[in-house]
């Protein structure tokens, strides 16, 4: 009987300059899939109904919460990009590599997937357990590419706290999902068209 050899996988830290676009996309989709699974399992372990957590709201007031916070955050991000030195806001070129040559439909898909997966885990599961403050600290920590500089780390914390706040105010997870989607979409399109022109 012939023995089957399993390939050896080695997990190691990759610097941004070592990443290819393909590897970055694989990493993005893998981590978002993992985020989704952890979020769903955590919600179920809390003995909550996933369909209730993701229930579509009866009214459309959540749209104003999502669009309003997204608008404020995008304006603040624009102000920060003019006030703060560029090297202080550097994420190692990850966002640039992710969105630079991406088709518009793919940017929309990435923004939607990230918004749903991350908000389900962080606002839907974790915030329910530990509240918006500690959730925002955890959210900032997992955005590890920003941890080299305190300004983007602080901005991620504030953004996360804002997402948690509109979740509490609107009573629906769709408000932070919409806000997160708009921010990622506009940021991705800005990178794509800024570099494409």
Give your account of this protein's structure.
The chain is 72% helix and 0% strand. By secondary structure, the chain is mainly α. Helix 3 (61-83) runs antiparallel to helix 6, helix 5 (104-142) packs across helix 7 (174-196) and helix 6 runs antiparallel to helix 7 (174-196). The protein is globular. 29% of the residues are buried.
Outline the biggest β-sheet: none
Number of helices: 7
Q: Output the helix-strand order.
A: HHHHHHH
N-end to C-end Cα span: 60 Å
Q: Spans with pLDDT under 50 lasting ≥5 residues? A: none
Strand content: under 5%
Query: What is the arithmetic mean of pLDDT?
Result: 87
3D shape: globular
Q: How does the helix and strand content classify structurally?
A: mainly alpha
Whole-angstrom Rg = 18 Å
The percent range for helix content is over 70%
Number of strands: 0
GO molecular function: peptidase activity
GO biological process, one term: proteolysis
Transmembrane segments: 23-43, 63-84, 104-122, 151-168, 174-193
Protein name: Membrane protease YdiL (CAAX protease family)
Outline the secondary-structure elements:
Layout: H1 21-45, H2 50-53, H3 61-83, H4 94-99, H5 104-142, H6 150-170, H7 174-196
Domain CAAX prenyl protease 2/Lysostaphin resistance protein A-like: 103-186
GO molecular function, one term: peptidase activity
Transmembrane segments: 23-43, 63-84, 104-122, 151-168, 174-193
Task: List key phrases describing it.
globular, 197 residues, mainly alpha
């Amino acid at each position: 009987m012939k023995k089957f050899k399993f390939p050896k996988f080695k997990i190691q830290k990759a610097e941004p300059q070592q990443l290819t676009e393909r590897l970055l996309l694989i990493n993005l989709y893998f981590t978002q899939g993992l985020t989704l699974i952890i979020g769903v399992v955590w919600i179920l372990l809390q003995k909550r109904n996933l369909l209730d957590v993701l229930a579509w709201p009866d009214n459309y007031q959540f749209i104003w919460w999502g669009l309003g916070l997204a608008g404020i955050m995008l304006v603040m991000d624009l102000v920060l990009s003019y006030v703060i030195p560029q090297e202080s806001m550097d994420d190692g070129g990850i966002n640039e590599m992710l969105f630079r040559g991406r088709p518009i439909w793919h940017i929309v898909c990435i923004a939607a997937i990230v918004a749903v997966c991350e908000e389900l885990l962080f606002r839907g599961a974790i915030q329910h357990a530990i509240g918006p403050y500690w959730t925002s600290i955890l959210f900032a920590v997992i955005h590890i590419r920003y941890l080299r500089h305190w300004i983007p780390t602080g901005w991620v914390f504030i953004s996360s706290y804002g997402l948690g706040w509109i979740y509490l105010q609107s009573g629906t997870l769709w408000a932070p999902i919409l806000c997160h989607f708009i921010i990622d979409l506009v940021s991705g399109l800005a990178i794509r068209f800024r570099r494409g022109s």
